[in-house]
Description:
CATH class: Alpha Beta
CATH topology: Glutaredoxin
Structural class: alpha/beta
Number of strands: 7
Radius of gyration: 14 Å
Distance between the termini: 15 Å
Shape: globular
Strand order of the largest sheet: 3-5-4-6-7
Order of helices and strands: EEEHEHEHEEH
CATH architecture: 3-Layer(aba) Sandwich
Amino acid sequence: MSDTLHIVCPACDAVNRIPVARLGEGPKCGKCHAPLFAGHPTELTTARFQQHIERSDIPVLVDFWAPWCAPCRMMAPAFQQAATQLEPRVRLAKVDTEAEQALGARYGIRSIPTLALFKNGRELARQPGAMGTADIVRWTLGHL
């Protein structure tokens, strides 16, 4: 493993090189100075999705959801809580499949919520259905 990791800024999408030893020290983006890890999921659009999935050296856990979906709304606080437990080892992100229909279609999202875990641009695992915080954390770590 390298001594540095590429981390995509959740605010401006700039790719930052961060020493592994400093990951837990609250690193900030070199371009916009926003925290690289804020303890909450990053909202991704179609335009931002590839940058975060392909350029980040840490895994990205994506929640494909929609605002009209009751189980999605029910799982949202658990996904938020999972972000505080999984960062900085894993970036958590959300994709609104209602607003970003092309992404949902591209990844064959048939039911929501669906969690998909990506590493180095490849999908590692997928889990449909609402989950609690502990289950999200356990499922994610079990696939890394």
